[in-house]
Amino acid sequence: MSAVKLVLEDDMLVAEAEKALSIHYNSLYRWINEYEEYGENAFPGHGTALYS
Fold first, then answer.
1. Predicted model pTM
2. How far is CA 37 from CA 31, 32, 33, in A?
3. In a 3-state reduction of DSSP, which class is residue 42?
4. How far apart are CA 51 and CA 13, in angstroms?
5. Mind listing the pLDDT tens digit for each residue in 17-28?
6. Distance CA 19, CA 14 (A)
7. What is the signed CA dihedral for 43, 3, 15, 50, rounded to 10 degrees?
């Protein structure tokens, strides 16, 4: 959630966030997409998206 918010709310570039947090850019883009679709419910429990 924090990585996603860095990009969406703090206007950090994905490239900057992935390097700073040692996260693969594909994961970060997937998390951003899940957050945009499901909002705060995107990451319940162990970080997997909540699908209805």
1. 0.78
2. 10, 9, 6
3. helix
4. 27
5. 999 999 999 999
6. 9
7. 10
